[in-house]
Specification:
Layout: E1 3-12, H1 16-30, E2 36-42, H2 47-53, H3 59-66, E3 70-75, H4 90-100, E4 105-111, H5 124-127, E5 131-137, E6 149-152, E7 158-161, H6 168-183, E8 188-193, H7 199-212, E9 219-224, H8 225-234, E10 241-244, H9 246-259, E11 267-271, E12 278-282, H10 299-311, H11 316-331, E13 334-335, E14 345-346, H12 349-359
Parallel strand pairs: 1-2, 1-3, 3-12, 5-10, 8-9, 8-10, 13-14
Antiparallel strand pairs: 4-5, 4-11, 6-7, 11-12
Helix pairs in contact: 1-10, 1-12, 6-7, 8-9, 10-11, 11-12
Bound molecules: 3-isopropylmalic acid (IPM) and magnesium ion.
Residues 250, 254 line the site of magnesium ion (MG).
Domain Isopropylmalate dehydrogenase-like: 6-356
EC number: 1.1.1.85
Protein name: 3-isopropylmalate dehydrogenase
Length: 360
Amino acid sequence: MSKNYKITLLPGDGIGPEIMKVAVAVLQAIAPKFDLTFAFETALIGGAAIDATGHPLPDETLQSCKNSDAVLLAAVGGDKWDSMPSHLRPEQALLGLRGGMELFANLRPAQILPQLIDASTLKREVVEGVDILVVRELTGGIYFGKPKGIVADENGVRRGFNTMVYTEPEIDRIAKVGFEAAQKRRGSVVSVDKSNVLDVSQLWRERVTAISSDYPDVKLSHMYVDNATMQIIRNPKQFDVILTSNLFGDILSDAAAMLTGSIGMLPSASLGVAGAPGVFEPVHGSAPDIAGKDLANPLAQVLSAAMMLRYAFNEGAAADAIESAVNKVLDSGKRTGDIMADGCEKLGCIAMGEALLAAI
Ligand code: IPM
Ligand code: MG
């Protein structure tokens, strides 16, 4: 009997709908080969949801996501909604989804593909072989901490503030995700904090160290975030798993992504408690400047679908099949504009999708 999975699709804004179309076609092509069936439900998010309902994350969308086996998200945002009040901006949909689905663990791999080494701005010898997994805490820290706000004192002088806060259980559960990921990789975790200055980071370091005693096979070290930023650019091959908080992970994952030279290639997973649905999405944004022009690179979206098969459904063979189709297409010299190199063949988003289907 074939296995059936219910997937909520959130195409969102900008290039989102174009790249989502490619990922869905790839999933549909893979399904019969592995005796899988997918039931897709498309829901509104981001600017598209604001236009249709006045809210970036309508209740029906959150409900649909919670009731599915996994969520495939493309991207949200665009100039059109940049002047909205902050609680109604498209980006709020991401925070609402993360908070509402309790997606506390964000996995952001930055792996350099041999075919694309020359797309990196760093020297070949620095980036060749880079394979980093950033494990970012996603539902706590300064993104969600209270109190927060902008208030005026009696003289009308305004003060803006946020609170960086972590409880012990919040640190413990993300630390476990980091150590377990390292066990399946090269067995090393670098925990990144700012414990030379911040109290919240002192607790972070203390708890991560305590949890590490349950993982004697994993080597733990600690780095301050400023040094870690420098080390990612100086010698990225020293890293296996980088375990860090919400804000530091936001920043470090962009730096790690750029080692590969092509943010258009990177997938990510946001996971909650065991058994709850996760959200899978490309690391890149909605790229409004190229939206609707058939110029987008759909590969990060397609690789996010592969990550969904692997992490959410435990369908490793189906995930491998998608990843090897991506490799085959790159090996044959086919490229979208963002990863174009001398001697390669330049394709649009639709043609790249067709090339993937042919490779499956
Ligand atoms: C990311 C983004 C988001 C974040 C924004 C768009 C809210 O930068 O997913 O890294 O800061 O988490
Ligand atoms: Mg970011």
